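Box 4.2: Ligand-aware structure prediction
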Amino acid sequence: MERPRDLWPPAGLVAGWAGLLTSYAAAMLMTIRESPVVAIAELVIRLTPGPVAERAIRFLGTFDKPFLVLVILLLVSWLFWGTGRLARTRWWAPVLVYSLLAALAATAVLLQRSAGSIDLVPVAVGYVTWVVCLSLLTEPLRRAERLTAAAAEVDGTDPLAQGADRATRRTFLLRAGLIAGVGVVLGVAGRVLGSGRRHVEETRRLLKLDGVTEPTLPTGARLPVEGISSWMTPNDDFYLIHTAIVVPTIEPVDWSLRIHGMVDREVVVTYQDLLDSETTEAWITLNCVSNPVGGTLIGNAWWSGVRIADLLERAGVQDGADCVLQTSEDGWNCSTPLAALTDGRDAMLAVAMNGKPLPIDHGFPVRTIVPGLYGYVSGTKWVVDYEVTRFEDVDAYWTQRGWGEMGPVKMSSRVDVPASGAEVAAGEVRFGGVAWSQHTGISAVEFSVDGGPWLPAELGRVPSDDTWVQWTGTAEVEPGDHLVRVRATDADGLVQTAVERDVLPDGATGLDARDFTASA
Ligand SMILES: Nc1nc2c(c(=O)[nH]1)N[C@H]1C(S)=C(S)[C@@H](COP(=O)(O)O)O[C@H]1N2
Ligand SMILES: [Mo]
């Protein structure tokens, strides 16, 4: 059985977690977007050099953020354990640790976009919880130690009388249990009651968007090939990339976009303004610059929204401007070449994706979509600010981490069929996949088995140059292991290069290949 002196570290741990839980509950109940822990995690992400972040994302996939939060929680747990131990000899030491942690959390919170002093409340709540709970938990331990010392001094009797120990432990466990219980209840209640997301989800579900039509698949776009990527990517299957850990939840009535900077007059656009404007709709394939050759960070959807060029015209863009610095509600930003927003392509402030209001994770209520550019320089989700400016005057999130400024999509192609490692019947084997070169278009796709001649593939018919295109073809294949490669040619006659380049700084190149086995 542990003695009271072994209970100091657990006291620190329980008090520490109680503070995390009350601060989380406060953040949730106040519908502050993030708990202080998450704010710290986002600060870490912001301070992480691009290539390191890139590697982490590739290594951990979509678990990079939960993983970071977990690491932070483990680290602070270790700190809390230590504060308990420290408390035994130096009452002020844990207070110092708490103060440093709170200062770090406060800094992280204040560095978030549009943070005010009210956002510090959860940090303060956590701090008070730490101090109060630690004294509540260590008080019986301290008392027991004082008694022990006094008894030893007076008459040398066995100071660790079993009964006194047991009483101390009972008081401690009672308090620790109570604190832990209340902490967990508050945490759960905060999550259930406070999550503004539920409300926004409800608003979103009830929205009726006039002028937004359901997607009708263009005839001939889909090739009848089993296992090929769906030409239209359903919203639920569409890849997700964002730096925010907790995504912004914005009620449409609270949303507005401010267009300012090098303009003749500042314009503020509301959600209603967008609904009252003429709708533009288009099939546009969006992809991520971090998509490796053959990767899946790409999707094709039917987007509905309002042309950005019209809004910029209302504001009156001044001479000399060459980019628009877009900022999201969560603080992420990107600088987009002005030309891509005004040259007549379907660059839009999108309100709907595949005929439905944007899913929250895809930027509800409004995001930017620009055909032909990678998402990191254009596709701002939860967008709230457009500053018309010059590239030389700004430094956006990914560009300051070494990624290219302009971000035009590079031509690429992928094999979907056969799937990697698949087993097919020898003889006539069907191949298929997708190819893309948004805003330029694909004119041909070829595939080659085991380094043999390039065979022309059949292409699906697409409504514009802004989407990917499905390809298919067949070839005679002997029993055994094989490798199929694919390459595209764009509408300008450029053939996809086999030279392999990393995704950093402006998109991967190289040819996709799949190995498969043909059996007799
Ligand atoms: N607010 C915000 N918008 C963002 C990002 C982000 O991190 N935050 N990531 C961009 C990147 S890198 C890509 S590839 C696209 C992905 O859009 P999706 O998640 O809807 O597929 O969003 C872009 N818009
Ligand atoms: Mo991206």
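In the box above, the bound molecule is MTE. The domain at 235-401 is CATH 3.90.420.10 (Sulfite Oxidase; Chain A, domain 2).
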